[in-house]
């Protein structure tokens, strides 16, 4: 899995490069700002882009804007955005185009290296990895259609939005496989999702959940 | 004993030749002559006007042009007087500046136009005070000038008039004259000081005007201070973000890698690494909260709506948010609004026992008005101990805004912040 990394802190750029290379990724380019990121993506066509939000020159939301450009130009390239703070508004922006192959994580999560690498692999494979904090924000903000769900079903949906499979949810909630299946089908019913193939309904459920 | 030279009588003698004494003397004497001239002009104009008015009142006689002339003088008198007063005041202020190095600010010109501009100064104290100075100056200045000249020339005058005296009388006569001479520097400086005090009081801006100027400058410097403090918070936020936070992430990552890699080491080694890793993660989370409390970056990038969305989303109770703000306010105003909502919601969560809250942000005229309402038990105050609302009330006041809390016992509580958008 080929990665282009954009991070303005030299220290972190080097650290992340090592972490990703050790973790089974291949960092093909590591750049310090958004302009160079777009050029590198153009040149290398990676599988996934890991991008910091605040970068030179303005140190505001360059990373988000670059991520949106990449999403529009190369829908196949997965994007994982890292930030010191997660903002509901940025998440909505990122998810407005497509919820697959998108990650939006607090930088702190890099500290849990295995979880971080797992999340990145999920994103690269077309999944979603949203920071629990983002999901909390979105959940409070968009609680209206979700009111019909029980707290447990909301937990399950939250994990679905994080991009976890049923077995991942089983592991996280420490419940049985059949219980998770029951919750999932109950969520589909409550959110009025037609019984087509399961994966598709899954994406729709997450989309509804995110209010996108 | 050289130092005795600089004490006692020597000081008295030396003061006779001190520049201050001579400057004060020159000021008083020149002022006597100058004020006599300015006073004469004022008296002349005043008398002309008075004569014209009196003639009109008594009923003019003689050629028909005379009443017209009287009327013209009566009408233009106050105007001419105002011109004279202003011009002479400027000259007097110049005299103080040139001789004593004393800067007396001119009263600010009246803002109005037309008749208002001409007559209005007479309705405030400004013109009358200057007028009074020009009437007083010839009398007090003249008297002071005579006294000072007498003091300096006392020995000469004594010598000229001593021919009829002898013995003790002569001694007393000359002793007195010498005492007057020695006192002359202090007398001159004293009189110059009184003159300066009178001029400052009467020729300078009035008390109300000085206060108005002061209030203006205070309001400006207060707002500047707030802007500077905000800029400083943003700078610190950015420094922490670019520096410490990145390094800590890096540290946590390295510790995380070590923790994942060293699973084959003895348990105590693994425990130490795990402990350090957990600690680093905890510090990161703590620092994140702290930095966010300094200044939320999203506020600058995306404005109040986006920043408040985040605050509302993080609140531990359901909050309805309506942001109806078409244009951006100044960064410090937005920061106050942001922290007001953040603080109010924290209070709601901590004390109100509420089930829901609502945040509304809108423009009312030039004001940015933020209301935070909850359905809790009420009884909150803006100056309650432990609430950050007090500090926010002060910050709002610093930009001429206000923060009010309406919270009857039993609820509901409404916190309203209104700030000029700026």
Detailed description of the structure:
With 212 residues, chain A is of the alpha/beta class. Chain A is 53% helix and 14% strand. In chain A, strands 2-1-3-4-5-6 form a six-stranded parallel β-sheet, sandwiched between helices. The longest helix of chain A has 14 residues, at 177-190. Chain A starts with a strand and ends with a helix. Chain B has helices at 9-16, 19-58, 65-100, 114-123, 125-160, 168-203, 207-261, 267-294, 297-302, 304-314, 331-352, 389-398, and strands at residues 319-324, 357-364, 367-374, 402-406, 413-420. Chain B starts with 8 loop residues before the first helix and ends with a strand. Chain B contains twelve helices and five strands. Chain B is an alpha+beta fold and 422 residues long. Chain B has a five-stranded mixed β-sheet with strand order 1-2-3-5-4. The chains are: A alpha/beta (212), B alpha+beta (422). Chains A and B meet through α1, α4 and α6 of A and α7, α8, α9 and α10 of B.
Major sheet details of chain B: 5 strands, mixed
List the total number of helices of chain B: 12
> Going across the major beta sheet of chain B, what is the strand order?
1-2-3-5-4
| Total helical elements of chain A | 10
Radius of gyration of chain B: 38 Å
Q: Terminal Cα separation of chain A, in Å?
A: 29 Å
Percentage of helical residues of chain A?
Answer: 40-55%
Structure summary, number of beta strands of chain A: 6
Rg from Cα of chain A = 17 Å
Poorly predicted runs of chain A are none
Oligomeric grouping of the chains: heterodimer
């Amino acid at each position: 899995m080929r990665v282009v990394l954009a991070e303005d802190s030299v220290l972190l750029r080097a650290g992340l490069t090592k972490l990703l290379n050790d973790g089974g990724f291949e960092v093909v380019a590591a750049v310090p700002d958004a302009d160079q990121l777009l050029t590198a993506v153009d040149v290398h066509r990676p599988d996934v882009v890991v991008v910091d939000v605040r970068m030179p020159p303005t140190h505001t939301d360059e990373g988000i804007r670059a991520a949106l450009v990449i999403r529009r130009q190369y829908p196949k390239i997965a994007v994982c955005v890292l930030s010191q703070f997660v903002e509901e508004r940025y998440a909505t922006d990122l998810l407005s185009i497509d919820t697959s192959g998108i990650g939006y994580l607090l930088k702190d999560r890099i500290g849990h290296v295995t979880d971080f690498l797992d999340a990145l692999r999920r994103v690269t494979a077309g999944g979603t990895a949203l920071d629990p904090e983002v999901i909390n924000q979105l959940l409070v903000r968009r609680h209206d259609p979700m009111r019909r769900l029980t707290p447990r079903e909301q937990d399950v949906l939250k994990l679905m939005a994080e991009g976890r499979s049923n077995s991942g949810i089983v592991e996280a909630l420490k419940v049985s496989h059949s219980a998770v299946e029951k919750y999932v089908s109950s969520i589909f019913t409550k959110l009025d999702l037609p019984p087509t193939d399961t994966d598709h309904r899954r994406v729709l459920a997450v989309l509804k959940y995110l209010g996108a | 004993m050289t130092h005795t030279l600089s004490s006692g009588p020597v000081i008295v003698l030396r003061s006779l030749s001190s520049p201050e004494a001579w400057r004060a003397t020159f000021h008083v004497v020149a002022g006597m002559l100058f004020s006599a001239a300015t006073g004469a002009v004022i008296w002349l104009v005043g008398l002309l006007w008075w004569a014209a008015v009196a003639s009109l009142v008594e009923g003019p006689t003689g050629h028909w042009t005379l009443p017209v002339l009287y009327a013209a003088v009566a009408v233009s008198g106050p105007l001419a007087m105002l011109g004279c007063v202003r011009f002479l005041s400027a000259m007097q202020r110049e005299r103080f500046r040139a001789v004593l190095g004393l800067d007396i600010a001119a009263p600010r010109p009246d803002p109005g136009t037309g008749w208002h501009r001409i007559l209005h100064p007479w309705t405030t104290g400004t013109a009358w005070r200057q007028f009074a100075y020009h009437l007083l100056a010839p009398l007090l200045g003249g008297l002071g000038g005579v006294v000072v000249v007498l003091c300096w020339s006392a020995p000469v005058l004594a010598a000229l008039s001593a021919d009829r005296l002898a013995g003790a009388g002569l001694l007393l006569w000359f002793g007195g004259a010498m005492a007057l001479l020695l006192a002359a520097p202090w007398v001159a400086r004293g009189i110059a000081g009184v003159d300066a005090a009178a001029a400052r009081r009467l020729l300078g801006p009035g008390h109300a005007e000085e206060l108005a100027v002061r209030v203006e400058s205070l309001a400006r410097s207060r707002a500047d201070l707030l802007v500077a403090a905000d800029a400083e918070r943003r700078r610190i936020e950015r420094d922490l973000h670019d520096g410490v936070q990145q390094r800590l992430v890096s540290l946590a990552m390295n510790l995380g890698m070590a923790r994942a890699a060293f699973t084959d080491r003895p348990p105590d080694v693994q425990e130490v690494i795990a402990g350090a890793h957990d600690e680093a993660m905890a510090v990161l989370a703590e620092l994140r909260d702290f930095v966010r409390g300094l200044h939320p970056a999203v506020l600058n990038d995306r404005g109040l709506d986006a920043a408040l969305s985040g605050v509302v989303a993080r609140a531990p109770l359901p909050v309805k948010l309506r942001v109806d703000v078409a244009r951006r306010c100044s960064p410090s105003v937005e920061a106050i609004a942001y922290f007001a909502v953040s603080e109010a919601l924290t209070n709601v969560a901590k004390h109100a026992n509420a089930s829901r809250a609502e945040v509304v942000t809108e423009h009312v005229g030039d004001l940015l008005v933020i209301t935070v309402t909850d359905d809790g038990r009420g009884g909150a105050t803006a100056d309650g101990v432990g609430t950050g609302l007090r500090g926010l009330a002060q910050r709002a006041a610093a930009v001429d805004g206000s923060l009010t809390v309406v919270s009857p016992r039993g609820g509901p509580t409404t916190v309203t912040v209104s700030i000029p958008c700026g």
